[in-house]
Automatic annotation (TrEMBL):
SMART domains xrefs: KAZAL (SM00280)
Keywords: Disulfide bond, Protease inhibitor, Secreted, Serine protease inhibitor
Gene3D superfamilies recorded: 3.30.60.30
Location of the protein in the cell: Secreted
Protein name stated in the entry: Serine protease inhibitor Kazal-type 2
Pfam families to which the protein is assigned, alphabetical: Kazal_1
């Protein structure tokens, strides 16, 4: 394995660790809080908060994960 291969493997592992599944079970889909605490979805869309992302997941029936906290 070359140094470039090792670097790519390490970067891929770090990137993978940042992605996480949102905790949608703790939210009521009828109402999300209006606090702005943005999360960036793996679909490239910034959601106002985790609950809003969970609502979008339920509506679209897709498997969006949190790429990172904050805007995309």
């Amino acid at each position: 394995m070359t140094n470039i291969d090792k670097l790519f493997t390490i970067n891929a592992a770090i990137f993978h660790e940042k992605i996480r599944i949102p905790n949608c079970w703790k939210y009521s889909y009828d109402f999300c809080p209006m606090n702005y605490d943005p999360v960036c979805g793996t679909n490239g869309i910034t959601y106002g908060n985790e609950c809003m992302m969970c609502s979008a997941i339920k509506e679209s029936k897709t498997k969006i994960k949190i790429m990172n906290l904050g805007e995309c």
